[in-house]
Design a protein that fits this description.
The complex is a heterotrimer of chains A (292), B (311) and C (256). Chain A is an all-alpha fold. Chain A has 11 helices and 2 strands. Chain A has one domain. In chain A, strands 1-2 form a two-stranded antiparallel sheet. The longest helix of chain A is centred in the N-terminal third of the chain and has 31 residues. By secondary structure, chain B is mainly α. Chain B is 73% helix and 1% strand. Chain C has 256 residues and is α/β, with parallel strands linked by helices. Chain C folds into 2 domains: 165 residues, Rossmann fold (3-Layer(aba) Sandwich), CATH 3.40.50; 81 residues, no CATH class. A 6-stranded mixed β-sheet of chain C has the order 6-7-8-3-9-10, with helices on both faces. In chain C, a hairpin with a 2-residue loop joins strand 9 and strand 10. The radius of gyration of chain C is 19 Å and the shape is globular. In chain C, 48% of the residues are buried. The chains are: A mainly alpha (292), B mainly alpha (311), C alpha/beta (256). Chains in contact: A-B, A-C, B-C.
Chain lengths: 292, 311, 256
Amino acid sequence: MIQFLQQLTNGLSIGSVYALMAVGYSLVYSIMNFSNFAHGGVIMLGAYFGFFGLTAFHLPFAAAFLLATVGTALVAIIVERVAYKPLRDRKAPFLYFIISAMGASMFLENFVIATIGPNPKPYPPIIPREPIAIGQLALGRLDLIMFLVSAGCLALLVLFIERTRLGKAIQASAYNMKASALMGINTDSVVILVFALGGFLAGVAGVFYGMKYMVYPTIGNITLKSFIAAVFGGLGSLPGAVLGSVLLGVIETLVSGYLSSQYRDLIAFVILIGVLIVRPSGIMGKTIEDKA
Amino acid sequence: MDNYTLGILMLAGINLVAVLGLSLLTGFTGLFSFGHAGFMAIGAYVGAFLTVSPARDIPGLGLPLVVGILGGGAAAGLVSWLVGRITLNLKGDYFCIATLGFGEATRLVFNNVQRFGGSRGWPLGATRDMGDIWIILAVDVVAILLVANLVRSRHGRNMIAIREEELASQVTGIDVFRYKMVSLVISAVLAGAAGVLLGNYLTFINPKIFNLTKSTELIIIVIFGGLGSISGSVLGALLLTALPEVLRFFEIWRLVFYGAAVILIMISRPQGLLGGMELTPSGIRKILAERRARLALRTEAAREASEGGAR
Amino acid sequence: MSGILEVRGLTKRFGGLAAVDNVSFSVREGGISGLIGPNGAGKTTIFNLITGVYKVTEGSVLFAGSEITDMEPFRIADRGITRTFQNIRLFKNLSVYENVLTACHMSAKYSIPEALFRLPRFVREEKALRAKAEDLLAIMGLTERRDVQANNLPYGLQRRLEIVRALALDPKLLLLDEPAAGMNPDETEQLMHLIAGIRERFKLTVLVIEHHMDLVMRLCESIVVLNFGQKLAEGTADEIRGDPRVVEAYLGSGGN
């Protein structure tokens, strides 16, 4: 039983990081109706920004964290301006966006490989290693922090979207871009805001991922799992993205713990296949019909 | 011709087979696959199993290469049919994510199949036979003919229509699901065949060869050559296979430039080199006819405008 | 009386909203009928339901006596119902000729292997397809423009091309969704003659959604009026013109 709870907490903590990634991706998806495949590159940069903040600039953790997240928010905005806005202006077909996103992802990843180098680097140990003991459970401190900060960020995001004017503008645009523009909402600003938020969350996810594992240029590949989590929970639904991510994290960890770690990465694909066959709209998704 | 140049030509020819398939799927039908290296992998491993001599450490059935090519292609095609059944009914994003997942999953699966060498790989044969260039060229010619014939028929036109306007295609009587599936399967068969040829050329296969980078390189060739152009794919495959060899010192920055180039192409010249055009007599005639007609339209509109003003 | 198209109790709900609510009408074979109503009345939704683009929530659609409710759009097109769209949906990057040639595909039966290996059946049928496409272009006055890219055509010709594309499938029922949108009176007049001419020449039934009251009143023998997703009235042009409910729906109460 203790084994199970232990795995559960591990799963929850990695799930919360997946949730940050998935929510950032879903946010952009709900507004722009396309999958931002460059999201992974931004997450990877977050890990590196945090790393350099700590090692090269010797910043205190909070400052490095801020540097990373603001940095990624900026990168996300730049990617949007350079790779997507020109296409939006020209009403380019969906295919072009995906291709451009792929180009951006390739650029970011290989830029880091070419400049910084492909070798993984470990984060300096900020969080003490000894776990906190609660009864017979050993909770890793980092895991606890990851979970709490992620949950906190998501809660803030929800408050922002539900309670503020800008948040409502985002909701309106997600529902119908054109109508929102006609209502006087500056949809271009909304797009920038959404990418900034997504980028911010990506930064948090990147730093945590780097701290838990290591920093390397292909961290972006992990976003495949967050895409799967978003599909699992329901593409376009933010609560769905969180639910799917947490479930994925837990299932993954349980499989890895009880079966074999070799199957850990495969389980995500099994879930994907299952979702697409049984219920493509995901747990909380809605089916949308094309308006003719 | 020295072996070095010949080798580049062979690699370009191998890439071309996979690129032609992908061109049909993405360039003509408008479906974006992130995981075509996965189909190459399936082809490569099945092909290896069929053709590797039984005497080797990791043995195969020792059948002729042609059998390997057909078998590898068929296996990839079969798997693609399964993938298509699950994903082609859904929105475009699902297909992208699914192919991305498929490519990665295939790599992971082969990493774990120790019978075929797992992550260490599978040495296939002693020496490379440069005479295989003729086999590669033959497959190229067959592939080009098949894709060209398909595209210039009502079936190919239906695929193009799906790319242009899926909804309008449906009400124009086109069975969109079926045509997407045909396009996917053919593209997978070609990718599988390319995988067999690649293994044969390298005399060695391991899962790392068929990773996400390989998938994206194939897509980049299709985009660079031009969506919806067979001659574009041929040119693209030649140029982009030869280029990295020529600029060897450039190696680590190559993909950085590819990434930037893709974005640049999409925002400034999305048709790439020859998008929508062909370097054939009929293709050139078509371009000239379009230009002539457009000019006629413009002069007529100008004439009407000036007449209208005079009135 | 049953017509070539029978719509019975058709209802479509999106979430809580009924875009179409229990609408029934029938379209006489060989006639030109109109479907009118203020914006948002559910007209295009009805087209989408008839052509299988949307699945019905309730109700049924019968064509030539058989049930076609919820069939796949391409099968419905095969049965003989084709349409145009409110926002033109041409194959933009293809030429005028290619747009029509593509749409002619159902007139040929050759299989994919026959195309791949250029077998005699392919050669024969492909030639016939190309001849048919050229024919259609000639009949509809687009031969001169055959090589122009569809999105370079002037607006009026784009609308005409979309109609030609719909005709290429040899339909028995042609659904036109606001074909006169954005046209000036001259062009609208031309369009009217075009539609009447098509009906004559191709012996088909036409159902038109339109806002140009002029065109509707002069062209349509039978008119169905929708408002807020429900059928308001059905009858001849004179009957509709004089119906106070219709006047009120369009102009608001107290208007004339």
